[in-house]
Amino acid sequence: MLKRGKAGAPRDCVLDVRLWGKESGLSSPYPVVCHLLDTSAMFQQLWDVVLSNETRSAIADALGLSAERARSVVSFWAGLHDIGKITPPFQAQAPGAFEPVRDDPSYVNAPGAEGEKGFRHEIASHWSLYGLLRQAGYPDDERLMRRSVSHQIAQLLGGHHGVFGTALKSKQAARPRDYNPGLGWGGWVEQRQVHFDELRRVTGAFAVPRGGLPAGLAVVVAGLVVVADWLASQASAIEVRMPGAGWSGTVAEVDAHWQVAVGSARGVVRAARLGRASFSAEEFGSMFPFAPNSLQRDLVEHLPAMIAKDGPGLVLVTAPTGDGKTEAALFAASLLGRAANARGLYFALPTMGTADAMLPRVEAYAARALSGERALMLLHSKAWLSSPGEDVCVGVSEGQTDGVVSAGRGTAVEADGWLRGAKRGLLAPLGVGTIDQALGAVLPLRYNVLRLLGLSDKVFVVDEAHAYGPWMHQLLVRLLEWLGEMRAPVVLLSATLTGRTAGSLVDAYRRGAGIREPSGVVPRYPGWLFASAAVGVVSSARGTTTDRVRTLRVSHRPVAWDALETAGAPVLEGGRRVVLREVLAPVAAGGGTALVCCTTVAEAQQTYRDVCAAFPELAASPGGVRLLHSRYPADERARITAECAAAYGKPEGGPVSVRPTSVLVATQVVEQSLDFDFDLVVSDLAPIAQLLQRAGRGRRHRRGPLGRPAWAAAEDEPALVVLDPLTAEAPGPPRSWGAVYDAGLLMRTSRILQERAPSGIAVPDDVQHLVDEVYEEEFVDRLEGSAREELVRLDEERLAGEAAERHLAAWTSICSPVDVKGDLSKLSAREAGVTQDLLTTRLGADTGRVLCLYQQANGVTTLDPQGTVEAPDGGRWGLRPAGLAEVARRVAPVPGRWLRGGEPGTAVPQVWGTHPSLRDLVLLYMAPAGEGSWVCQYGRFTISMSGVGLEAH
Q: What is the spatial distance between Cα 490 and Cα 461, in angstroms, rounded to a whole number?
């Protein structure tokens, strides 16, 4: 055995540059030592540009090092991520480069070791780095690996492909090659040591940390290692640094390569737009072109002093729809972001439509209030179909690229197209998107650390915090624990949030920040409160006034349920159809606008037909009767939504007059974040919180005496008509509603409306009480006999179902940061039976996706019924980007039960490729059926497409 030098490698063992680290898409194999150096250099630049001073200091303090030494040490770690490539299985993947190494007697392979494809290089990094770091003097605990700094860093670096390996057992750590022959003997061991020593020399990382990283900082470092690896793997950057013939890895050559890598890293990081935004505006007037309203003014007057005294934390704002919560949130985000030195913000919303609508508002705010790097991402599954402004990036399809990445196929998908992929979008300084993009951070999905990194140093704004069921609420609770751990500022917005829900969100954030005492939060409506992440202070909720004090005039109308009767059927006395005709008659006669909000798509479609039949002149006029729901192709729904925004949106200034008579029949899609204004709102019975949301669309904006019809002149007394199917003859909800709403909440809401309708509902004074009242345990005492027994039964079912959803969310999500306890594999571990589909879909959502293909009379198949856009052909590499976009714009969601059983020939053709937007897509070959309708048979259903969208019979 050769004697080892002071650094650990044999004195006569030199760097072997035949060992390759990158090869795919390159002119020649790239030495692994060069890639290690490149990644370390890239990490140093990311450390300087992406991380805040506070985060850098926190990492240094945890390691017990100065900030300068911590920078060197952690960038050294980043380079070590691929040291597992110095193993027989990896090197054998490039036979030409491997042949001379395989024939070199100094490299000793166990029989079959080079064929162990399951022993991936990142696993090898984990297994080999523990011993290398321990030998370098890193703190260790042989009996309890989770206390070993050597093992924590090895496990962290072994997770650079998005999944952390299981913690090693003591016997495995002591004899790694006995358990994994793929590590090799002899020269393999020596070369890992030589590369370790040389990288340590170049980076100057001779300092030894005295402690490990807490969970929040560990995921930040792990995520940054992934980013450094991806940036350093871009083929265009590698080629310009490719060593020439005769390069042998001498000290001088390695040093020269390092200097070039350090210099080029600056440009690469700058081009990726991974810098920091700065919350430079301090005054409300600098952020927005209008004066603050009552809610916003109270934040302006009181929040700055609270933050100055107790540091940044969480702000909760509760106010009616239309009261300026968005601007209040952005103002609070500016104060919190400046105090925390955050690098940007992410604005999370419940749906793709609400995210699309919010994007221009955040873009305008950023232009006025922020400086520095202001790259803005739109993040949701169809964001790549949008056309935002020049500083806005959107997701692209996997496979569409701006360049080439030298990596295996899986890495290339993740690494290409900077700031435009699903796993990288949250790395942009600014983002607007759906809540699930953020909640993925607390699910055991590959690369979840990138999402945590992306949120760790931003202000996280959640709109419609009341809009999520128990499953998503529990995930939000877990995410807030992590954000509290990382001291990321948070702003929560809601129009109808129960006190219990508000308390659970605030307490989760405080737990993450290390504050265990319950906050005892009691929200005020309208109002706001502040919870510090630093000192545990929670302000008393501040009640504010509103510029829109109103009395909601509620007309509670019990009806017999005939919503699905055909338009030509006789009208039933006391039925929903006759009452709807009655309440819409003033609109048809006197002008103005009305919203009719239905519970199901099928009922909305049939209601639309019935309204058209009842008011034929209105239906014949342009825009007289409109229909909006989710079961349209995406492009058609976007067109209808834009048309509605123009017809029912906020007046743009200038003279305001009564709008043309129009009725919009819609589903719950109009509840959240769409700025629509109607003279009258009619709604089927729904839980009280949803009814209040819908009522907020009634006389929402000031139009003045000339802007509304005479029957709706009282702008401060908006009208809400509730069509209630719960009658003495039919005490339960219609069967057609299924499980859309909990029957117990509907029963409670119906009773509240009976009591409140005569006097009206004061907005905002009554709102918080009503939202809490509908959940009160004592509510059952208002009822007697069988009605009481039924409500008790329904309550028990609801509570059991909610508990089951919370349990499942807790079971499937990653653990809280306090429970990581040095073992990062807990961020990747999945329980048996937990599938990717379960993790990435909303619980209980039984949906499928279809694409209608229209078979024209001339034999051509098109994407549109008019026959103007032919279905794409595809090819060897799948659909081209333009064809893929044409397809994706026409996909529509349908109930999963429509598609059960399948139908031959309806799968996506192989020549279209495997893009994620095509996954599980069902093709419906539609034939003309007259009067603008198209039909096809799918299993036991006849599915039709017409002007009312998709239907099944």
A: 6
Q: Can the peptide bond before residue 470 be classed as cis, meaning omega within 30 degrees of 0?
A: no
Amino acid at 731: P
Mean residue pLDDT across the chain: 90
Give the orientation angle of helix 688-695 with respect to helix 743-756, to 10 degrees: 60
CA distances (Å), origin 415, targets 422, 423, 430, 447, 821: 11, 9, 20, 12, 30
CA-to-CA separations, 396 to 144, 293, 360, 363, in angstroms, rounded: 44, 39, 20, 20
Spatial contact of 920 and 848, defined as CB atoms under 8 Å apart: yes
CA distance 364 to 376: 11
Question: pLDDT digit string (tens) for 843-896?
Answer: 455 688 999 999 999 999 999 999 999 999 988 889 988 899 899 999 999 998
pLDDT digits (tens, 9 = 90+) for 13-65: 789 999 999 998 888 999 999 999 999 999 999 999 999 999 999 999 999 99
8 Å CB contact between 196 and 121: no
Using the Cα atoms of residue 571, residue 572, residue 574 and residue 576 in order, give the sign of their dihedral: negative
Q: Which two tokens stand for residue 340?
A: 């925390």
Question: How big, in percent rounded to 5, are the helix, strand and coil portions of the chain?
Answer: 45, 15, 40
Rounded CA-CA distance 32/18 in Å is 9
SS3 800: helix
Q: What does the alpha-carbon distance between residue 327 and residue 300 come to, in Å, rounded to a whole number? A: 11
pTM of the model: 0.87
Question: Around Cβ 178, how many Cβ atoms within 10 Å?
Answer: 10
